[in-house]
Amino acid sequence: MKTAALEGDLRRAWESAQELWGVHMHDAELRPGAGKTHGAPAWFRFPPAIVVDPRMVAELGGADEMESVFAHELGHHALAPGTRLDSLKIRHQLARTLVAAGATSVRDDDVAMLSNLWTDLLVNARVGLLQRRRDGPGEPGIVRLSRSLYRASRDTGGRLWWVYLRTYELLWDLRPGTLCAVQPPPAPARRATGATTESPLERIPERHREAEQKLREARAEAERVSRELAEATITRPGLDADLLAGLVRTFAGDAVSGALRFGVLVAPYLVAERAAGASMPGGECSADGAPPGAAELGRVLADPRLREPIPVPEGRSPGAARSARKGAGQALGVARTLELYEGADQDAVIAAWYRAEAARWVRPLTQRAPATPAEELPGPVETWETGDDLADLDWPATLRAGGAVIPGITTRRRSYLADDPLPRETSITLDLYIDSSGSMPNPRSGSPAVLAGTILALSILRGGGRVRVASFSGPGQVGGSETFTRDAGQVVRDLALFFAGGTTFPLDLLERRAEGHGRATAEERRHLVVLSDDGLVSMFGAGDPDRADVAARVRSTLTTGTLVVLDRSRRVEPLAKAAGYEILYLETMDDAPRACAELAEVLNG
């Protein structure tokens, strides 16, 4: 589409907007007519770029306030979200609140809209403050622009839009009724549910009576949860607008943390309005739709702010508070995370999620040997973002970037080349076999076994060791890596392989991998761990009698051999002990992460 020249009054407005923020950026693009395609008169994208449709701005009545139009878009780069990483983190926080509010799916357009509303509030509040400081008494340009832009939607939006506009009135000290009606619109009607008529239990045939009783109990529990969810999503527009104005002032410098509180207040409105088929006026001023890469996913999901407990806002019922404390939506599960990052490499999403979940359990498992100087190949300097590990902060590079230390703006971190030589390989190796039969939890729905394997593997890797993973199920169903690796992403991808077949331990693979190995020594420690729920008698020859002695022979080449199993019948115990293997029994598979964290400490000696 043809672009227009940035000159005359538009050039002066652009320069004034940059001076207002104290930043300098390459010229904005003027694209007359592009706004109708995008659905907004102006938008920003990453890498930093601003596009404005001056024709659409004029049609909405904002032609005299082009400085405020430019200042608003510059604010998205200077304040919120500021960086692409923070933009992804804000979206993640808002997805958590949608799930907690009862959304049946994490829709990209819902997350994008809430992200846009939150960052717009932060930016417009700051623009108004900067214009008041510069111009003195009188109405700031951003307020005059907002009067024009929101005039058409004043009485057409739902309760969420009313709360949004009322928040601006509170932030800018405007008289009630300036941007929206004095009173909020009525709540959308809830869908009626028909009452269930139950026959007396004595009329139910005796052979079905127990099943019917369980069904009724399950139905009663579902109704109780539904009532608590309804209480949790009760909205109070007047109070919520006041609370939002306070959030904007409090979290002006931390949009990621503030997004969680913002979402808690507004997600119930959106869930209710979507259920009633309502739509929101306006468009989004973000055009960054590129999915995150593996490195970005790792940095986003590693931010501890994305696992903060979801707060219960003022005015919510005790039942809602209890529901929140039970953990619904506290951290976005792997299935919801895959849904949120649908356009990204799904294997990379799974690997990043399990690594982030495992981080709190991991302790480096190291070989006790004399230290040697580490060789490093430094890569380019990158921006150190709020939420990154403080140890990664490169102070010399940060101080060279500017006189003032501004987190996420002038702070720097040193990257390292992906193909750097191994600084020093320790002699710790871990052969990790994980059961991926149909009786094990699916990694895409959340698997404690995969999380446990990740904890164990990362403990080895962070200590300088190497890991090799084999995922097994029925005969011939074996996947993973042939060689030991220090690539954490590859290790987790191998752990997340899922066949959903039977359970047959790959004795042929175990035998082949042990060929040529002598006994383990103090200088070369070899560990083997098997994670399974049941069926490990096949590891000791059940179904393959010709290889009944393989496990015992391989054990003689290992420092330790451990089976982490959910085996209530304990059929494998005599076989494992006879072959020299230790057994860690699990009561439920949910115990596996803690068991493997403790096992890592034991292996460390």
What does this structure look like?
The chain has 605 residues and is α/β, with parallel strands linked by helices. The chain folds into four domains: 79 residues; 161 residues, no CATH class; 51 residues, no CATH class; 180 residues, von Willebrand factor, type A domain (Rossmann fold, 3-Layer(aba) Sandwich), CATH 3.40.50. Helix 5 packs across helix 11, helix 9 packs across helix 13 and helix 10 runs antiparallel to helix 11. The radius of gyration is 29 Å and the shape is globular. About 4% of the residues have low confidence. It comes from Microbacterium testaceum (strain StLB037). Keywords: Coiled coil. This is NAD/NADP transhydrogenase alpha subunit. InterPro entries: vWFA_dom_sf.
Q: What is the name of the CATH class of the largest domain?
A: Alpha Beta
Shape: globular
Query: What is the count of DSSP helices, taking H or I runs of 4+ residues?
Result: 22
Strand order of the largest sheet: 8-7-6-9-10-11
Stretches with pLDDT under 50, minimum 5 residues: 318-329, 368-374, 420-426
Radius of gyration: 29 Å
The total of beta strands comes to: 11
Could you please say which CATH topology of the largest domain applies here?
Rossmann fold
> In CATH, what is the homologous superfamily of the largest domain?
von Willebrand factor, type A domain
Report helical residue fraction: 40-55%
Number of structural units classed as domains: 4
Q: Give the averaged pLDDT, no decimals.
A: 88
> Structural class of the secondary elements?
alpha/beta
Strand content: 5-15%
CATH architecture of the largest domain: 3-Layer(aba) Sandwich
Main sheet: strands, sense, barrel? 6 strands, mixed
How far apart lie the N and C ends? Answer: 66 Å
